[in-house]
């Protein structure tokens, strides 16, 4: 082999070695943050955008995401140290605090600001009105969960007593509600996306109303952490919140198709066009929070809804369980 060929090979090998070492160093520099989401949902689009578009990496964070089914299990994982940050409904922080937790849970960045469910009717209804639910069989969500509380709040808002004016079914597991309706149970059902849109496509049901539009703004899904974690590592919380804000901007500024393509790795079995339809529906009713700040009016609305449903253990002061310090810094 000629001398110049050997030299070239040595240069190439040396260059590749440097690149590999640099890549390893970059990987080592990223701080791993364990995040537990209460479910996998297009409703949480900004979170997935922040991961796939590299917004967390830009802040030096490596997100280790896991799905922990159920609010109670998600909070158990957070309290036990199994995860650093939880993405779950704010009502769970109220439940935990009411039990006298030694290490308070703080809500620090809001992801969604409305209920994410839709009212689906078995038959297509051109001129829907809520009083059509009187005397019907309604498949609601799990008792004590935010979807069910928001659902009951909306029904009462329209003069319907969930316990007296219709047959309310709420003893079916979350994962089986859609199957029960598809099998013939109920006249109306309260569903999350993309199931509601899939049912429309398949002719199983028809979306007739939005619980999110009807129930108003509230801290529906929020990132929260233990107070001790936030005090010990405030920089991580700030970096996390900054990455989230970048993703929130992306979700509203990019096209629905671009958002759908960005999050499809988390929904491989769902068609991009369907994901885009769902994203657009949630954007139109502003379900995705436009910034991470959870304001006091939203917090009070949440507690009013919980109180109306008979699920509020006691009213919690906004300043005790909400910390907007990091969100405010990000917006400066």
Quick recap:
This is ABC transporter substrate-binding protein. The chain is of the alpha/beta class. 48% of the residues lie in helices and 16% in strands.
Write structural notes for this entry.
- It comes from Ureibacillus aquaedulcis.
- Its main location: periplasm.
- Belongs to the bacterial solute-binding protein SsuA/TauA family.
- This is ABC transporter substrate-binding protein.
- Residues 1-22 form the signal peptide.
- With 332 residues, this protein is an alpha/beta fold.
- It folds into two domains: 31-114 and 218-331, Periplasmic binding protein-like II (D-Maltodextrin-Binding Protein, domain 2, 3-Layer(aba) Sandwich); 117-215, 3-Layer(aba) Sandwich (D-Maltodextrin-Binding Protein, domain 2).
- Helix content is 48%, strand content 16%.
- The chain has 16 helices and ten strands.
- The chain has helices spanning 3-29, 45-52, 55-58, 71-80, 91-98, 146-157, 177-182, 195-202, 211-215, 227-232, 234-253, 256-263, 272-284, 296-308, 318-321, 325-331; strands at residues 31-37, 61-67, 85-88, 105-112, 117-121, 137-139, 167-169, 188-192, 206-210, 221-226.
- Strands 2-1-3-10-4 form a five-stranded mixed sheet, sandwiched between helices. Strands 7-6-8-5-9 form a five-stranded mixed sheet, with helices on both faces.
- α6 links the parallel β6 and β7 (167-169).
- The protein starts with a helix and ends with a helix.
- 44% of the residues are buried.
- The model is unreliable at 1-27 (pLDDT under 50).
């Amino acid at each position: 082999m000629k001398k110049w060929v050997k030299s070239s090979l040595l240069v190439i090998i040396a260059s590749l070695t440097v690149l590999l070492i640099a890549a390893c160093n970059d990987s080592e520099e990223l701080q791993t943050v364990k995040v537990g989401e209460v479910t996998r949902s297009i409703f949480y689009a900004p979170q997935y955008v922040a991961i796939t578009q590299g917004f967390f990496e830009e802040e030096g964070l490596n997100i280790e995401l896991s799905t922990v089914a159920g609010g109670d299990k998600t909070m158990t994982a957070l309290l036990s140290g199994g995860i650093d940050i939880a993405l779950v409904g704010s009502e769970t922080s109220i439940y935990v605090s009411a039990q006298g937790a030694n290490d308070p849970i703080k809500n620090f960045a809001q992801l969604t600001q409305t209920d994410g469910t839709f009212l689906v009717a078995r038959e297509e209804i051109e001129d829907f009105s809520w009083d059509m639910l009187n005397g019907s069989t309604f498949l609601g969500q799990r008792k004590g969960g935010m979807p069910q509380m928001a659902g009951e709040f909306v029904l009462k808002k329209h003069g319907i007593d969930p316990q007296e004016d219709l047959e309310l079914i709420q003893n079916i597991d979350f994962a089986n509600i859609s199957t029960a309706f598809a099998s013939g149970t109920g006249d109306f059902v309260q569903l999350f996306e993309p199931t509601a849109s899939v049912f429309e496509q398949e002719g199983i049901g028809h979306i007739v109303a939005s619980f999110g539009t009807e129930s108003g703004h509230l801290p529906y899904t929020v990132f929260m952490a233990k107070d001790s974690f936030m005090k010990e590592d405030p920089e991580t919380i700030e970096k996390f919140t900054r990455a989230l804000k970048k993703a929130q901007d992306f979700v509203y500024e990019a096209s629905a198709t671009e958002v759908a393509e960005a999050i499809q790795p988390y929904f491989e079995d769902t068609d991009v066009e369907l994901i885009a339809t769902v994203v657009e529906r949630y954007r139109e009713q502003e379900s995705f929070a436009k910034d991470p700040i959870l304001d006091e009016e939203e917090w009070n609305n949440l507690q009013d809804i919980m109180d109306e449903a008979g699920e509020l253990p006691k009213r919690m002061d906004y300043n005790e369980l909400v910390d907007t310090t990091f969100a405010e810094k990000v917006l400066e």
